[in-house]
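Quick illustration, no need to memorize.
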Amino acid sequence: MNKNELNSKWENIASFKNKKGYKALRITAVSIPDLFLATDEDGHRCLLLFLPKKVDVKLKGVDKSKLLISFLPSKGIVLIKLKDFDFKDLFDDLILSIYSKINLISKPVQASEEFIKTFYKWALFFEDKKVKKLGEELIQGLFGELFVLSQYLNESNPSNINSILDSWRGLYDAANDFEFDLKNIEVKTKKESTRFVKISSEYQLEKVLDKDLELVVVSVKLDLIEGKSIHDMLLEIVKQVRENLGDLSILYQALNQKGLTLENLKQYNNYRFIVTKTESLNAGHDDFPKLSISNIVSEVSNLKYMLRVTQLNQFLIESKKY
């Protein structure tokens, strides 16, 4: 089951004529649980799990502004309803996540438990959070991180894509933006004409024991016509994850750390960038010029300084022009 197949089924349901109540269609013939797509009389999209009448579902109904879940014991149905059509793409991702988790489960109780657990995991992503509006510097920095993530996802496959998604730690306020098994990566995004990047703490370029440390400098230029926004980059990443059968909840959970969603990132579409070059530097080298926790006195803290990247060619690992 993929996004295109799901869209086709929604179109089939929309074509049903003269039918009162719910219009429903089994999500796929190969699913062991009785899982159905549906729309109610008001056109709200729903996901229905039919259970044997003897199954007792322990569920306290949740009714939020955009999403609800309830159990109809007289009909043996666990129902999820989308109440805000603007979130239909995210709702489809929720459906695909539930399907991937339960489609091979033969025990109804186990299927219902996994159905409900997945709902609660995803419900957080449908909430509106009041967040402070991002400034241009933060937008540019997030764009660079998303670009680097997308580059790694280009080389991914279904067996490693979730670990790549898990490696992105920038929105969790971790010391480095990416944490892999063998190396950490700090991403700095700058205008192509700028010679410096800002190091915002003594921990950012601190090498972890038994791991390499790379500083990836992403050079960009503003271009309102040909450039991409952070929303555009996120849509590309969502597409990459879907194509490789990855777990999108990992991505949405990261965004949720800062109250970011596909919807509220649209407000920054007037900031559009083109990546002109990336440079990977060996920041773990003993001679790399930096101020970090291991080479400053303990009385000094909360460091912020500028690093001139144009004079670091001796530490260059790779340079790419776009």
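The longest strand covers residues 212-222.
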